[in-house]
Design brief:
heterodimer, A: 283 residues, alpha/beta, three-stranded antiparallel beta sheet, 9 helices, 11 strands, B: 288 residues, mainly alpha, 81% helix
Chain lengths: 283, 288
């Protein structure tokens, strides 16, 4: 990092975690996690089930109390930064019977927390409505969902739903985007295209993206760095450096091997609970 | 005596408004249809038909209990439905929509248990007391006779309060109905909205029960809104269409019931059902 970047401090850092510890019901979920995410950086958060990936995201959103350490988001507290964070929680897909258009879902991302009903009685209210519609159309275009945004969300494919949800998370123009397993329900081609879309958003909109994932392989080509969580501890760095036998062996405290398949995929073997963790997921 | 139809349909419509009891029935029906159309649109969106059914089942022991205590049955409807709404809201503290599958299982077990006890209590109250006009049929399947002007005024006040609340909550309620997790992350008080909506639902059901009876509430609360959901995806258009279909249902049903010997509940249900089937067919043809 250059001196100039250091001197501007929080202006270049989207997220700074310093010694963060989280306990839930007496269990230590995260212990002494420190990491920095820079503006416009696309970072994947990896690790086995129960390693605390979702808890880490909630700590950054200010949704869980800290037992120690500090979280700084966009130069302020998570609560203060909340309007500038776009969040897509872990989920199953929409019920097929959900008879609401994608465009309405995206619009709710913009105005869904406002009380009352806007009546277009004044010129100001009408202008505001036009601006909101234009912004909604703009993000839908950005995620490439214009062709199906007018259809019922329940009827759309998993990949189409995911693009609209990303549009809803982006509509307020956030500077940090937190996506909890957005690729989980998608087939491989869709995983790659959504990962490519997120890369493009991070670069063109200057949004820092934290993406929780099970499998690094569909993402590897697009990522700036990865955060790897295991046993409540976190490692941050380049994909090749973090997902390596010595690093992961140290993190897990048990011998781990990282294999590279002939098509370049990384496979972690020797984990106690999830043997083929980074391989192709079954079911 | 059952009035007979004349050759002139305009005369027949005019005759509907000659008796005060019929004017009261039409006024009550109009108020109830508007309220049920709006509330029901959210119920269908939130997939809360099962919770609605429980609240409507609770209307029966409420009305029967009030009659036993010598109080107006309308009061029994309001008290029982609101109390049941509060109880369900408390039991499902992290309600189905918010907590996912686990919450829904818990909610449905509570609801199923409460329903059975409610129905049984209603029958007990009625067998202890034979003063209810028409007995269990009236409370379960509805009547349009004997709606007082006072009852209409209370319906109007309840409906206005509920509609003002729903207007204030419109977008956050829509947001938390479609996507509770994201809404919560965006600062929408999802749990409080869930509880509040249950109370509004309880009031709407208490109001509707007075015309349709406890068991046929769905004819106005679910069928017209479900038809509207089939026809349009736009929230505002859907709400307006839902109200229009509910009004059409109740007006037609009251008019037919006036000239017929069969109960109004049958006509409301049949018309609501036909509208829903037509809307489904139309939706399917359009999507093809």
């Amino acid at each position: 990092m250059t001196n100039a970047a250091v001197s501007t401090g929080s202006d270049t850092s989207a997220v700074v975690l310093d010694g963060v510890t989280v306990r839930i019901a007496g269990h230590r979920i995260l212990s002494d996690v420190s990491l920095t995410i820079r503006n416009g950086e696309f970072v994947a958060v990896l690790g086995p089930n129960g390693a605390g990936k979702s808890t880490l995201m909630k700590a950054i959103l200010g949704l869980v109390p800290l037992a120690g350490g500090s979280v700084d988001v966009l130069g302020r507290s998570p609560q203060q930064a909340r309007p500038h964070i776009g969040y897509l929680p872990q989920r199953q897909s929409f019920d097929p019977a959900t008879r609401v258009r994608g465009v309405d879902l995206v619009a709710l991302g913009l105005n869904g927390s406002r009380w009352g009903v806007p009546l277009p009685l004044t010129a100001g209210a009408r202008r505001r409505r036009r601006e909101e519609r234009a912004r909604v159309a703009e993000v839908i275009e950005l995620v490439g969902a214009s062709a199906y945004a007018g259809r019922a969300i329940g009827e759309l494919s998993g990949g189409e739903q995911q693009r609209l949800l990303i549009a809803a998370a982006l509509v307020r123009g956030p500077r940090l985007l937190i996506l909890d397993e957005p690729l989980d329900s998608l087939d491989l081609p869709n995983q790659a295209s959504v990962a490519g879309l997120i890369r493009r958003i991070a670069t063109t909109e200057g949004v820092a993206v934290l993406l929780v994932a099970h499998d690094v392989n569909p993402l590897a080509a697009y990522l700036d760095r990865v955060v790897y969580l295991a046993r409540g501890r976190a490692l941050c760095g380049e994909v090749e450096d973090v997902i390596s036998a010595p690093t992961l062996t140290d993190l897990y405290g048990t011998p781990v091997e990282v294999l590279r398949t002939s098509d370049g995929r990384l496979v972690v073997v020797g984990l106690p609970e999830a043997p083929h963790h980074h391989g192709h997921r079954h079911g | 005596m059952i009035p007979s139809l004349s050759p002139n349909p305009i005369d027949d419509v005019r005759r509907l408004f000659t008796y005060p009891f019929m004017v009261n029935a039409l006024a009550a029906g109009t108020i109830v249809a508007i309220l049920a159309g709006v509330v029901g649109w959210y119920v269908v969106l939130r997939r809360q038909a099962f919770a609605s059914h429980t609240l409507s089942v609770m209307a029966f022991p409420g009305a029967a209990g009030a009659a036993l205590a010598g109080l107006p049955t309308a009061l029994g409807y309001y008290v029982a439905c609101t109390a049941a709404a509060l109880a369900i809201g408390r039991a499902g503290r992290s309600p189905g929509a918010a907590a996912g599958r686990r919450g829904q299982v818990g909610e449905s077990a509570v609801i199923g248990t409460v329903q059975t006890v409610g129905l049984a209590a209603g029958f007990l109250f009625l067998s202890l007391n034979h003063s209810v006009l028409g007995g269990p049929e009236t409370l379960l399947f509805g009547t349009f006779l004997g709606i007082t002007s006072g009852q209409v005024l209370v319906l109007l006040a309840v409906a206005l309060a509920a509609l003002v609340a729903l207007t204030a909550l419109a977008r956050p309620l829509l947001f938390s109905s479609i996507d509770p997790e994201v809404a919560r992350a965006g600062g929408v008080p999802v749990a409080r909205l869930d509880a509040l909506f249950l109370i509004v639902l309880g009031l709407a059901i208490a109001a509707t029960s007075q015309l349709t009876g406890a068991l046929l509430v769905f004819a106005l609360l679910i069928a017209p809104p479900a038809a509207a959901h089939q026809i349009t995806l736009r929230p505002l258009a859907g709400l307006l269409l839902s109200v229009a279909l509910a009004l059409l249902t109740i007006w037609l049903a009251l008019a037919i019931a006036y000239y017929s010997i069969y109960p109004v509940g049958f006509y409301v249900t049949t018309i609501g059902f036909v509208l829903y089937v037509l809307a489904r067919a139309a939706g399917r043809i359009r999507r093809r």
